[in-house]
């Protein structure tokens, strides 16, 4: 009988060890850093607002000014609560006029900047007209716009465009002209078209300047919309301001001013957030770059 040679079975392969859990300490560290940066940037203005509120309360408590001139913070807060529906409706009207005017100013201003940079002839023709339109007081144009377009939102939007247009053009021209000439020469040498050069080199390089101009323009657009409501309107925060002033309702007047300021701040923060998303590569957006010496 042949000998049966038993062969030992090969040892079973050991199951692979589960992958080690990724260390999330760097993530936590980065989140903690960002939270610390936010707190570091926010505590100073928050403290200043608190001090201003305390000073406001102290002045009204000491009755330095009559109540019909300077209301107490409590009266203003009560006005914001009791008239919230009316104020919300008028705030929405002003917000709509401001945002629409700002978007139109951004689009038209950037188009004008491109034309000025790419055409010396148009630069000589457009720049004097743009400067001429900028120096005209917008409050003088508002009645004409009301006569032409009525009491609807159109005059307010046009005024917002006229006021916000100039910083967009100036910043756009500065940004488009700040491109390194060697990059432009290299692009031309490699056969890139003018459109591709603009899309890949000139426009991305102009974003830091352009976004700085847009942050100025969005706050000026609020001013333009409110100025238009001063002249002829039956709704909007400017209309509420005139109404409160005519009725000597200082609480409503202060509440309206607070809403105007809040609208400008919110829109500014939105453009600031867009800047952080669009140009994270810029030196001003890098983590750890101090903006002040303190």
UniProtKB/TrEMBL annotation:
Keyword Cell membrane found: yes
Keyword terms, alphabetized: Cell membrane, Membrane, Transmembrane, Transmembrane helix, Transport
Main location: membrane
Spans traversing the lipid bilayer: 46-69, 99-118, 125-151, 157-176, 210-232, 252-278
Region annotation (Disordered) ranges: 1-30
Membrane topology: Multi-pass membrane protein
Record-annotated ABC transmembrane type-1 domain positions: 91-278
A UniProt-annotated Pfam family: BPD_transp_1
Ribonucleoprotein found in the keyword field: no
A GO BP annotation: transmembrane transport
Subcellular location: Cell membrane
SUPFAM superfamilies linked: MetI-like
GO cellular component assignments: plasma membrane
Family recorded in the similarity comment: Belongs to the binding-protein-dependent transport system permease family.
Full protein name: ABC transporter permease
Organism: Jiangella aurantiaca
